[in-house]
Specification:
3-stranded antiparallel β-sheet, globular, 12 strands, alpha/beta, binds pyridoxal-5'-phosphate, 40% helix, Aspartate Aminotransferase, domain 2
Length: 376
């Protein structure tokens, strides 16, 4: 048996994306910046991909920069914006991905970290408190707020539209790390009202090592100096096959969002029903309804999440204890601490994240195997 149920860590490359990438390895391999005709197709493929990506999030093509993934997009947005300002106050939340938290910490400016409620929600009240503090401390100042669209561990989805309205009412700039959300829930940058947004292809069945950053016109200056690629913002020869594959994967996922959501909700329901009907002591972390459709973050009382993860691994099932990064730290994650999971449950936390390729049988097998292992 092999069941992959760790789709928040990464996803399998979509077959259509793979096919679309192939010609750009062996046939159309020219450097897109070269002047001869051979590179014309390649350049066009990049711009076509930019148009596709922009359309998927209701942006303009010139507002999309291709990056190496979510980590780079987050660093680019935060470090580039803060470097452009003499005085800056950076506001973020306690459950952000480390690429946001550490980029804010290393921005050279004061950082305010907002708490979240028990579901992992950033409330408008907390945001206002943080923004009021910023206004008191720095003058003249710029304020950058970075709040993720959906959390990678517990799946909680924030009310980005409401948060961005508050941010803008203070004249501040709003960045969102939408790495877990893009391709999984509808994302429209105009409706959400965000100024910058990060995404990563390998989370939506695209290739690894490629992502994009949306930013409103004129907001960011040059991040990587060099040959002037990516509209002059991020120099470096483009990863053409990956850019093409990302666009194909994103378009497909966006077109199939409704169908995939229904399928994933069915799987999580099947999983959860088995768990609820058993006698194991557990709690579901994250928001009960405002959550990513395939995400189940569960804490089992008095158990070791690490141990459960390894026991399931021996049975051919891939789940995780938290985020892929935290599996290296092997500590209770900052997200689980931030939402105040009771101490006796914390260590017993596992994250099961189903993807569009999982079946109902997969969901039932994961639930039943977990229960069996808990009872050992
Ligand atoms: N932000 C979030 C919310 C993530 O889940 C991840 C990856 O796990 C990242 C950023 C980093 O993305 P990448 O792996 O593309 O660098």
């Amino acid at each position: 048996m092999k069941i992959y149920a760790d789709n928040a860590a990464t996803t399998r490359l979509d077959i259509d994306a793979f096919e679309a990438m192939k010609p750009y390895f062996l046939d159309d391999f020219a450097n897109p910046s070269s002047a001869y005709n051979f590179s014309k197709n390649v350049k066009q493929a990049i711009e076509e991909a930019r148009r596709t990506v922009a359309l998927c999030i209701n942006a303009q093509p010139e507002q999309i920069i291709f990056t190496s993934g979510g980590t780079e997009s987050n660093n680019h947005a935060i470090k580039c914006f803060t470097a452009q300002n003499q005085h800056c106050c950076v506001v973020t939340s306690s459950i952000e991905h480390h690429s946001v938290l550490y980029a804010c910490e290393n921005s050279g400016f004061e950082q305010l970290i907002m708490p979240v409620d028990k579901y992992g929600v950033v409330t408008n009240e907390e945001l206002k408190i943080a923004l009021d503090k910023c206004c008191l401390k720095t003058s003249p100042f710029s304020i950058l707020v970075s709040i993720m669209t959906a959390n990678n561990e517990i799946g909680t989805i924030q009310n980005i539209k409401a948060l961005s309205e508050t941010v803008h009412s203070y004249g501040a700039i709003f960045h969102t790390d939408a790495v877990q959300a893009v391709g999984h829930i509808p994302i429209d940058v105009q409706t959400l009202g965000v100024d910058m947004l990060s995404a990563s292809a390998h989370k939506f069945n695209g290739p690894k090592g490629i992502g994009f950053l949306y930013s409103k016109n004129g907001l960011l200056q040059i991040f990587h100096h060099g040959g002037g690629q990516e509209l002059g913002m991020r120099a470096g020869t483009e990863n053409v096959p990956a850019i093409v594959g990302m666009a194909v994967a994103l378009k497909k996922n966006v077109e199939e969002i409704k169908h995939n959501t229904e399928h994933l909700l069915h799987l999580t329901d099947a999983f959860f029903t088995i768990l609820k009907n058993s006698d194991v002591d557990f709690i579901l972390n994250g928001h009960p309804t405002e959550r990513l459709p395939g995400n189940l973050n569960i804490s089992f009382k008095g158990k070791s999440g690490e141990g459960l993860m390894h026991m399931l691994d021996l049975k051919g099932i891939c789940i995780s204890t938290g985020s892929a990064c935290d599996s290296i730290n092997q500590q209770v994650s900052h997200v689980i601490k931030a939402i105040n999971v009771p101490v006796e449950y914390r260590e017993g936390t596992v994250r099961v994240t189903f993807g569009k390729e999982n079946s109902e049988k997969d969901a039932m097998d994961v639930a039943n195997t977990l229960i069996k292992m808990i009872k050992i």
